[in-house]
Amino acid sequence: SGTPMREFLFVDDMAASVIFALENKLPEHLYNVGTGVDLTIKELAELIQKIVGHAGEIIWDSEKPDGTPRKLMDVSKMHELGWKHKVDLENGIARTYQWFLENINNFKEVKMS
Questions:
Q1: pLDDT at 110 over 80
Q2: Which among 16, 19, 57, 83 is least surrounded, fewest beta carbons within 10 Å?
Q3: 113 falls in which pLDDT band (50, 70, 90)?
Q4: How far apart are CA 71 and CA 47, in angstroms?
Q5: Is residue 53 situated within a structural domain?
């Protein structure tokens, strides 16, 4: 249906959070790392369409369950300690897509049996 909400984090930000934790010698507690921002799967699909220039129709398989309605991290503890993500979702998808285009010739063809 595209209605479930999810949060996404660019890999460079995840790596930066680990470095932040190590450099600041954070106590051994649980820390949520994320953006604190979510969007629907439908909004995500439309954003990807925009970035890659796809104008086709998105078709939702109503036979498949949506899963958990919402997954969003409470990142307030990391923000209070001074860490915050730097790459927003649109920029992260655009960077990933650009990297893929620049490296497509390095991928091997996968054959389905």
A1: no
A2: 57
A3: confident
A4: 19
A5: yes
